[in-house]
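Q: Structure tokens for this one, please.
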Amino acid sequence: MTDATPCTGPTCENPKRLQIIEAAVAEFGERGFAEASMDRISARACVSKRTVYKHFESKENLFAAIAEEMSARMAAELDVAYVPGEPIAPQLMRLAEAEGRIFRSPEAMAMARMWLSETLRAPEMAQKSQAKIDAHGAFARFLAAASADGALSLDSVDRAASEFVGLLKARAFWPHVLGGTVISAEEMQDVQREAVAMMLARYGVAG
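A: Here is the predicted structure, written as tokens:
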């Protein structure tokens, strides 16, 4: 197969690097890292094998690139800064909505599903870049700023961040990543409202 081979798949409209990453997500998800083939990845991506190796020297580099792509997408969505003086409830909702957009993305969920499968099959491979795909840091930074401003009363920022992320993942992520589905917009809104309400009930400041 050459780079000029006609292709009508959805990934053919994307830059080659993204095509390869999306093809690798599908290949790793179906076969696991050990059994994945660079030949099949190049075929899925509609590019030559030489092009694959031009962007990624090995399967290990390609796997790490998937983590980088997930991290970049999460960072872009979760770039929600606390605004001093503004009501805290709508701000918490904005943060929950940012996480919800990730859970509502079929591409992001496919990456997460592949990552989970590989964690079970080859934990030493997945653990190397686990921290890159963790939303905890973004939530902790937001909550720390809210606490410093007196909008929330937190005895532990890390614990509160884990609780907030956990409330969202319990209904919007885990049932769907394990079931191969994507949460509906209506259900996502309900999850977000309930999570924010519980955070305010536990950590809200009177008045």
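A few notes: The domain at 1-57 is CATH 1.10.10.60 (Arc Repressor Mutant, subunit A). Residues 16-35 form the longest helix (20 residues).
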